[in-house]
Amino acid sequence: MTSLLLEWLVKIAVVFAVLITSVAYLSYMERRVAGWIQIRVGPNRVGPFGLLQPLADGLKFIFKEDIIPIKANKLLYLAAPAAAIVPALMTFIVIPYGSEIVLFGKQIALHVTRINVGLLYLLGLASLSVYGIVLAGWSSNNKYSLMGGLRASAQMISYELSLGMAIIGVLVLSGSLDLVNIAQSQSGYWFGFLPRWNIFLQPVGFIIFYIAALAETNRVPFDLPEAEAELVAGYFTEYSSMKFAMFFMSEYLNLITSCSLAVTLYFGGWNGPGVNSHPWLSLVYFLVKVFLLIFLFMWIRFTLPRFRYDQLMWLGWKFLLPLAIVNVVVTSTVLLLAS
Amino acid sequence: MVPLSWYLALSAALFTIGAVGVIVKRNAIAIFLCIELMLNGANLALVALSGFFGDVGGQLFVFIVMTVAAAEAAVGLAIIISIFRTRESLNVDDADTMKL
Amino acid sequence: MERVLFIIFAAAAVGSALNLIAQRNPMYSALSLIGTLASLSALYVTLHAQFVAAMQIIVYAGAIMVLFVFVIMLLNLQEDQPRIEKQQWLRYLAVPFAAALMAEALYVFRNVKDIRLPAGSDSDRAVGATWSIGTSLFTDYLLPFEVTSVLILMAIVGAIVLARREDG
């Protein structure tokens, strides 16, 4: 019992540290990718290739003045950043980031925990993450913040439906809500060379999932809650210093979680050639796949313009949701006929 | 182990608090929230009985209660918005005529 | 262990419920209700009802309550102004009413036999896991399930008719 508890604690600590570090370096990567796509330089002054830039940013955040507007609702204003970052940190524990490795003579499974309703746990926390944004928008007592909060809540409720419906296709195929089972069900090959990844069976589902994930993480082209040209900075207009940094971090954490979930559901999780003989490779495969999907997110961000609000609602309700429902019906019909 | 009666007592307490709220509150949204609280009190009793008797039926009732609550929230909040548009107030004492 | 968990979450549920009716600001009331919902979800897990616990968070806390908070923000409600109530005496009626209701509930529950909670199992087909809910929902409880879908359709139509502006 105590050794199990210790294993949990160590895993949680390691995952937490890795997540926080990758958030810092994602902000660096985002600016470098932006520079590369827009043919400019990006941060390159602090350290070699600007690699120490996240450290400098962190120090800057800590030393900035912490402002609480006089007319703000103080309690909720202070609670909102915490409400944003806590669900974002909690989601990652059910995602399997590798198969089983042997470390210090002990069999260690590379996931923090497994729950038989793991995917529902993840969706539940994702639906709670809207409160941080909504409360920030409401408590700041600022019209731009309020507009940002209203837009965020409408957008996240609308796209959550398409996200859930897109996932059902994968669930029907794998017959489990446990993410470890879903990853394991995608091992092996078709015809000897094509990996058994769900993306080949659910291409439409993946596209809907990916678009909905873009909207859920409030990224371009769906960044209306924080559209800087219209709303200053949206729901975190009034925030500064570490409170702003917490919103920033929760956004990148959600980005990591969405991409990890996409990899687990559609790209075979940690599966890849040679995983059975060298379990360490599974971790590498997982990280590479997640990195590529995050890069795609950034590519989209610096390529596409922002949607208008009515276009956003049109896309969510009149295109993605019907398409997701058709996808579920077709998947289950084919599965029924095939069995 | 936690006895079944504890769960039932908690469920009764939540239901009572909700019922008191419906009487005491004058804000339409707050009354609505208290109704949701009463539904949840009943749900807890259903889930507790379902768990203790090992019968899945109670959990399905909870599932259906949630659906009804969602439908109720959609219609109820729409009514609240239209009342607010005409009366500029959410006090239920102001909504004393049958016209919108 | 289970008792400690029960007491913690029961106290949180009752505390947030009392806060719900004590607050004048509807936003605080809504947030207190979310606290109650989350505590109840934890209690459902102790009763081995994982699927319902997850649904409680996704449907109640993640959708219904977001709708409430959205409307409170949309109407930009401030605190209720203290004002002369038309029916002040109703408030004082609430205390005996609550006592009567609680007494009635406890009277009904007086004969509850203390059976033991069956041990939870890790099987995918245990009561409370997704498989059991899905199978019963689409076999024994198919009619109620279909009826709720009709109810939801009516609610959608009703909500659109009510919230639409006439001139729009």
What does this structure look like?
The complex is a heterotrimer of chains A (339), B (100) and C (168). Chain A has two domains: 1-55; 64-93 and 114-338, no CATH class. Helix content of chain A is 65%, strand content 4%. Chain A has twelve helices and four strands. Chain A has a two-stranded antiparallel sheet with strand order 1-2. The radius of gyration of chain A is 21 Å and the shape is globular. By secondary structure, chain B is mainly α. Chain B has a single domain, classed as Helix Hairpins, CATH 1.10.287. Chain B contains three helices and no strands. Chain C is an all-alpha fold and 168 residues long. Chain C has two domains: 1-78, NADH-ubiquinone/plastoquinone oxidoreductase chain 6, subunit NuoJ (Four Helix Bundle (Hemerythrin (Met), subunit A)), CATH 1.20.120; 126-168. Helix content of chain C is 70%, strand content 0%. In chain C, helix 2 (26-46) runs antiparallel to helix 3 (50-74). Chain C is globular. At the B-C interface, helix 1, helix 2 and helix 3 of B face helix 1, helix 2, helix 3, helix 4 and helix 5 of C.
Quick summary:
Chain A is mainly α and 339 residues long. Chain A is 65% helix and 4% strand. Chain A has two domains: 1-55; 64-93 and 114-338, no CATH class.
For the structure shown, list the relevant keywords.
B: 100 residues; Helix Hairpins; elongated; C: 168 residues; mainly alpha; Four Helix Bundle (Hemerythrin (Met), subunit A); 2 domains; globular
Main structural class of chain A: mainly alpha
Give the class-level CATH name of chain B. Answer: Mainly Alpha
Order of helices and strands of chain A: HHHEEHHHHEEHHHHH
Label the CATH architecture of chain B: Orthogonal Bundle
> What's the CATH topology name of chain B?
Helix Hairpins
Helix coverage percent of residues of chain A? 55-70%
| Largest sheet features of chain B | none
